[in-house]
Design goal:
It is built from 10 helices and 4 strands; from the N terminus they run βαβαββαααααααα. The protein has helices at residues 13-24, 46-49, 68-78, 91-124, 131-152, 165-168, 171-177, 183-187, 190-200, 203-214, and strands at residues 4-8, 30-33, 57-60, 63-66. A 4-stranded mixed beta sheet has the order 2-1-3-4, covered by helices on one side. It is globular and about 45 Å long.
Amino acid sequence: MGVVKVHGIPLSTAAMRVMACLYEKELEFELVPVDLRAGEHKKEPFISLNPFGQVPAFEDGDLKLFESRAITQYIAHQYAGNGTPLVCPDPKKMAVVSVWMEVEGHQYDPAASKLTYELAIKKFLNATADNAVVEEYEAKLAKVLDVYEARLACCKYLAGDCFTLADLHHLPTMQYLMGTQAKKLFDSRPHVSAWCADIMGRPAWSKVLAMQNKA
């Protein structure tokens, strides 16, 4: 194993996703700060790690990756024997995990990320949320969470009875939204609410939040 490096900032939802995975796998890593305000993510040397100029970038020895969900899948498979099993060796069970990872990326995240920006990030920037956009995307997220409520009535986690990447990938935006008016969308659905409390209470996630508090 080489030196694992995550290039990014602890407030980035994508970087948080990668760090949560590393902590679940009990792997040591170095967080390499990237000054976004100075535009370091759009310049060398960072742009050689991620040509799209977005955090995070990831290094494991001579392997260089970008895109947070691809990084978490690499970590989960490469270090399958470490820490929490986040993927399944059984192809059928892994297919179910993959379905819900796709749901997170294509159904949940577009709405959740938009709301995170409007309700949380804009507050950091001393900007005002666009109420029309918030209303539109709260309705979209509510429809997704209705599907989740039905799914979680049948099993403890999205892909079955075990915590996997399908659940972990939700944590960053969920964390931000729980501090906003969008919290009501999660709290009003009992199975979703219980799932949120479960995954947000994981020790690995607490370590990600501790890194945020130091930033």
